[in-house]
UniProtKB/TrEMBL annotation:
Keywords: Carbohydrate metabolism, Isomerase, Metal-binding
HAMAP family: RPE (MF_02227)
Cofactor comment text: Binds 1 divalent metal cation per subunit.
Name of the top EC class for this enzyme: isomerase
Classification lineage: Bacteria, Bacillati, Actinomycetota, Actinomycetes, Kitasatosporales
Name by which UniProt lists this protein: Ribulose-phosphate 3-epimerase
Amino acid sequence: MAAQINPSILSADFARLADEAKAVEGADWLHVDVMDNHFVPNLTLGVPVVESLARATDTPLDCHLMIEAPDRWAPQYVEAGAGSVTFHVEAAAAPVRLAREIRAKGARASMALKPATPIEPYEDLLPELDMLLIMTVEPGFGGQAFLDIMLPKIRRTRELISKHGLELWLQVDGGVSASTIERCADAGADVFVAGSAVYGANDPAEAVRALRTQAEASTAKASWACDH
């Protein structure tokens, strides 16, 4: 199974976003962190920047909404050009309805879980989603250290996906780097958000390729992939 690498522009130079997007043109998606200073203690960007970024790059946009009231705002990010929109289940009033609305507008629907949020209560929602995001740091800031205690949660999520026979992507976000990506892939993740590990490198495009190679090598040996 192919691993997907999604560089996070949270670690890019915001004054040069079009150039920073071009610097990782070999990436599968460009991860866009939207923060509102309410759901998380940080403020980043919104719909107008996503619209501009969508015009500036051919790499599809993966928008991660760390915001309150995603039921109200998420559809606007699809209209702005996002190919995938992730909402946090902790903030959503009606996650099934929201996932269906995102899909109906033509984007992939994704649901995110903060580190302390268990996956098990949401097992029945999985068929409504195209991707599930397990946060491997507390959302809100880039550059945080990877939380190894999330690995069992990734494994349990992969087991639920397999149990139901779903073609559901499993994304991890937070502290993903050359030193952690293999553990994430072995646990069951197949989509990897990497911020400083990509944009902090001398050659961001090469960093993307190297991370993908590591993830695919680990996936090839993983028990969950062999059973798939």
